[in-house]
Design a protein that fits this description.
This protein is mainly β and about 140 residues long. It has 2 domains: about 30 residues, no CATH class; about 100 residues, Ribosomal Protein L25, Chain P. Helix content is about 5%, strand content about 35%. The strands form 2 sheets. Strands 4-3-7-6-5 form a 5-stranded mixed beta sheet, with no helix packed on it. A hairpin with a 3-residue loop joins strand 5 and strand 6. The longest helix is centred in the middle third of the chain and has 9 residues.
């Protein structure tokens, strides 16, 4: 069930806070998603930047090896809602039906950051790992 929280403030202090069931008439322009600490699980996310520093690495003096961005991987720790754990663990334990059929790739959008997929090789039952696949772009016309 989705809830829309609204509040009325007076001189910087909240005087009324109201929660209403989400409907087409009170649907906000944006949502804030959160999870409570007791219902969250820890994860590791890999954020990848460009592997080369320049757009033409082969043109760099000394060859492309001299253009490698050694800081292209940023590892972050975070939290996700615990309700995703069973889906992720089932995916980790899934086997291919044949060598030509891959196991479903689980994809999620994380809090205004981008789209991430479950890393089946790095993840375990005690540590889920997600790789960023697509960044979100800010709307240039947004005010």
């Amino acid at each position: 069930m989705g809830l829309v929280l609204s509040y009325i403030s007076h001189e910087g202090n909240v005087v009324t806070c109201r929660a209403e069931k989400l409907s087409e008439t009170n649907k906000p322009k944006a949502f804030i998603h959160w999870t409570s600490k007791p219902h969250s699980i820890s994860i590791r996310s890999n954020i990848y930047d460009r592997i080369f520093k320049s757009p033409e690495p082969e043109a760099v003096k000394g060859g492309f090896k001299n253009d490698i961005n050694w800081n292209s991987l940023e590892v972050r720790n975070g939290k996700i809602d615990g309700s995703l754990l069973s889906e992720c663990l089932a995916n980790l334990n899934a086997k291919r039906k044949s060598e030509f059929e891959q196991v479903e790739i689980l994809k999620y959008q994380f809090e205004r950051n981008g789209y991430f997929c479950l890393d089946r090789k790095e993840s375990s039952a005690t540590c889920l790992v997600f790789n960023k696949t697509v960044s979100l772009k800010e709307d240039k016309n947004k005010k």
